[in-house]
User: What shape does this take?
Amino acid sequence: MAHAIIAKAAQTRRALPLPTGWEAARARLEGLPGSGLNIAHEAVDRHVAAGYGAQAALIWLGRDGDRRVLSYADLAAEAARFAHVLRVHGIKPGARLFLLLGRVPELYAATLGALKAGMVVSPLFAAFGPEPVRARMAIGEADVLVTTEGQYRRKIADWRADMPWLKLVLITGCSAPEECLALGPVMSAAPATFETHPTRPEDMALLHFTSGTTGLPKGVVHVHQAVVAHAETGRLALDLKPGDIYWCTADPGWVTGMSYGIISPLCNRVTMVVDEAEFDLDRWYTILERERVQVWYTAPTAIRMMMRAGAEAAKGRDFSALRFLASVGEPLNAECVIWGQQTFGLPFHDNWWQSETGGIMIANTADMDIKPGAMGKPLPGITAGIVRHDGDDVIEQPDGTIGELALRPGWPSMMRAYLGQPDRYARCFAAGWYLTGDLALRDSDGYFWFVGRADDLIKSSGHLIGPFEVESTLMEHPAVAEAAVIGVPEETAGEVVKAFVTLKSGYAPNEALERELRGHARKRLGPAVAPREIVFRDSLPRTRSGKIMRRLLRARELGLPEGDLSTLEGPAR
Assistant: This one.
């Protein structure tokens, strides 16, 4: 806060009234006859009907240099063909379709086609191993899987017989194992029109999986009414305007890649850039420059990797088309915001949301001043507060007080269930609040500041220490690329702060640097909050979506159970 402000389940559910404040957002969508609502219709079909079929919907960049452009009419036709394939093969509305694909055109056609046919879409990250795939498909009782032949043989074939409810496996391309169906030929033979199934606003549409600290992943249920929030928050929080060139770097296997990598941009009639390849600095800068990207939504991890490479890597590039930069996935350090301003002439705008919220809840919007390090303010239609628990009571806290971030329930993209876990779902709500599990504070200007997950909070000598504040301070040092902070037991203080740090190129770990970093932190934070110990690492454990796994660092430090590791990026130690 010390930084200066930078200016400017497959079933039909009981119909719920649209919450107050969201009526105008709903009116910007078309809907289906008889008060129906369908995500795919809002994303593509209504634009084609309105005469925008020739506009580019998707610019696909293959990892080997291919470039393919699909118009809104093309995407609508491919979705219709896919929906027809499902219907011909006996897959009924409400069935659950899982996607195990990279960022390829078939993924977008399958997503929209399944939603158009009234089915439930559950995306999986293509880099998952066999066990995470199997666990999620078992929990979700998958009816259909769309994948590649290589993925099927490596990750599915050995246990497919254990899932008798899996009715159909569609393999991209023109050939498939005998027990599967090749998607290419049947898509080519299918008609390019399909009448959208008359889904209702509360019909289940999306099933996202999120990892808990222990146990199996949770299946988060979202309904077609979520599209109201997807469309509106893209307009408000990401400044999406019809015709924009927009690039969301998130994989559709994660909730961000679905909500803001497919649904929101298409509902706002933008042209999406989709890159099949993984992060490569030169490739990313080339895409921004060559494709004339106007709105860019990426992750703090990627921003820090760009920072690590230095400003020289961006010199000589033409980024003049960029209008708005935003970040998602984990808290955005103030240094990243400022670096964006220095490198691109634009700050990165942080925002906050969860798989459970389905869409952005708190954001730094285009018309706001930015306080680097702050999440921003609640979007219109969202009421947020800082609360504490006192027995069964939930008490709202005054500004400047750390507590649990809570939201008033009822926004359109709010999760409707944890699949098969009603008690766990019920525990998320109390006294008229949805309890997020994140600690934050609200300042006197109404900006919210992330402190950490409730189970990440460090209690030392009576002080409550949020790891994000310590990590951000360490990252202010020119040697530090990334930092993660945990609390470790100590007899006198209860807990003390321990930091794990990766260094930028050109810096080597040594005792002198460790002392320098501790001194830097003590000067900025005070001795009670600064790390007592700093450990240098080549890498930090993180999820495949980029979030640093503090709870895994803590578990390994203390010899505790490591919990669900299915989303772990790699064997970082």
Confidence is low (pLDDT under 50) at residues 9-15.
